[in-house]
UniProtKB/TrEMBL annotation:
Every CheB-type methylesterase domain range: 213-405
Entry EC no(s): 3.1.1.61, 3.5.1.44
This protein's name: Protein-glutamate methylesterase/protein-glutamine glutaminase
Source species taxonomy: Bacteria, Pseudomonadati, Pseudomonadota, Alphaproteobacteria, Hyphomicrobiales
Subcellular location: Cytoplasm
Length: 407
């Protein structure tokens, strides 16, 4: 008989008002372009545009946006400098960093996530490419709609604030005092109590028993909020990572995934890199799907290798979590262990079902600690998960699984 799990947090009824967006970019062309795209969407409206971070900081309380699209490189005050000032002035503010695909900008964007930004978009290299890129326009508007609906439907973004604060504290290595930890736990309990009645219906979410087979791989899928969640979870797993290969699909463009793999390596102390096509997987190594390429696993000469391809996007994503999870299920069967972390959309849900069909185990991050409970929520609703846990409990759970003490 499966367990029953009732979600810790249910989505509130969203406001019918459009989400309010501020655009901050030193290019008048980009400000106009983004403004037209946003105002054409009935779920969004532009309330202010500014050419530098200082003007945005000075205006944020007056214009009162829900979301700020914040350029990285600007004169007078750049995006990274403006970010903490904006967050300090407007509680619940969602900030999406926007930068071109350079290594420096990718580094800055990932740093911004650790300081409280919610997400990022990678702008094409030129203004003309930006104006004609249907894919970029869709990505920007999808993120604005999804995050805007969440902010306006969940006490003006309080869950995002809480998850963002937890990410920043973890990334900077800060240790909260006992009193602060108890305050945060009490706040979470109150939120869970208030919102525990309506996520998926009266019957809750079904859980499966964990596989009795010892895992031979850890496969992870993540998106919005994923970079910090990945580092925190894998660091908490400790020496467990030495037992098996770890494969990761994080929704990110090229360059970003290179830097993410480096950050994960520094956080965990284990070798971490973008996977190469045909590369043999080794225990104790972490392999990240390169931006713009799907990653699957395949058997080869008695071992397992990474296979990369630039096929069509799946679930509007490339890399996509589903092909990775589905290939893991086919190769490892009941010895598969997958984790679905924070992210918008439903990518990974089909893959979790396949892993469950083959007898493997899946853990999903809970809503209270997710920046966006899209991907983990979709996985949970399939009934394929063996646990739905707060982020800080997933790493220790992995350790117990490999010790044979998990229940």
């Amino acid at each position: 008989m499966p367990n029953r799990f009732r979600s810790d947090a249910a989505a509130s009824t969203p406001s019918s008002e459009p989400a309010k967006v501020m655009i901050v970019d030193d290019s008048v062309v980009i400000r106009g372009l983004f403004g037209r795209w946003i105002d054409e969407d009935p779920d969004l409206t532009v309330v202010a545009t500014h050419r530098n971070g200082q003007l945005a900081v000075d205006d944020v309380e007056r214009s009162n946006p829900d979301i700020v699209v914040l350029d990285v490189e600007m004169p007078i005050m750049d995006g990274l400098t403006a970010l903490p000032k904006l967050l300090a002035k407007k509680r619940g503010l969602v900030v999406i960093m926007a930068s071109t695909l350079t290594r420096r900008n990718a580094e800055v964007s990932l740093k911004a996530l650790s300081l409280g930004a919610t997400d990022y978009v990678a702008k094409p290299e030129s203004t003309s490419q930006t104006s004609t890129s249907v894919e970029f326009r869709q990505e920007l508007l999808q993120k604005l709609r999804s995050l805007g609906a969440q902010v306006r439907g969940t006490s003006r973004g309080e869950p995002l604030v809480r998850a963002r604060r937890m990410r920043a504290e973890t990334n900077e290595g800060q240790t909260a005092s006992s009193a602060l930890r108890h305050d945060r736990l009490d706040a979470r309990k109150e939120m869970q109590k208030a919102r525990s009645h309506s996520l998926v219906g009266k019957d809750g979410i079904s859980l499966r028993s964990f596989s009795s087979a010892m895992p031979r791989v850890i496969a992870i899928g993540s998106s919005t909020g994923g970079p910090q969640a990945l580092q925190a979870m894998l660091k908490a797993a400790g020496n467990t990572l030495s037992r098996v290969p770890v494969v990761v699909t994080q929704h990110m463009p090229r360059t970003f995934t290179t830097i993410l793999a480096e950050h994960i390596g520094r956080a965990t102390g284990f070798p971490s890199k973008e996977a190469d096509d045909g590369e043999l997987l080794k225990p104790g190594h972490i392999y990240v799907a390169p931006g713009g390429l799907h990653m699957r696993l395949a058997k080869s000469d008695g071992g397992v290798v990474a296979k990369l391809d630039d096929g069509d996007p799946i679930n509007f994503c490339r890399p996509s979590v589903d092909p990775l999870f589905e290939s893991v299920a086919e190769i490892y069967g009941a010895a598969s262990l997958a984790v679905v972390l924070t992210g918008m959309g439903s990518d990974g849900a089909k893959g979790t079902e396949r892993i469950a069909q083959k007898g493997g185990s899946v853990i999903a991050q809970d809503e209270a600690t997710s920046v966006v409970w899209g991907m983990p929520g979709a996985a949970a609703r399939t009934g394929s998960c063996s646990a739905i846990l707060p982020l800080d409990q997933i790493g220790p759970k992995l350790t117990r699984i490999f010790e044979g003490t998990a229940k």
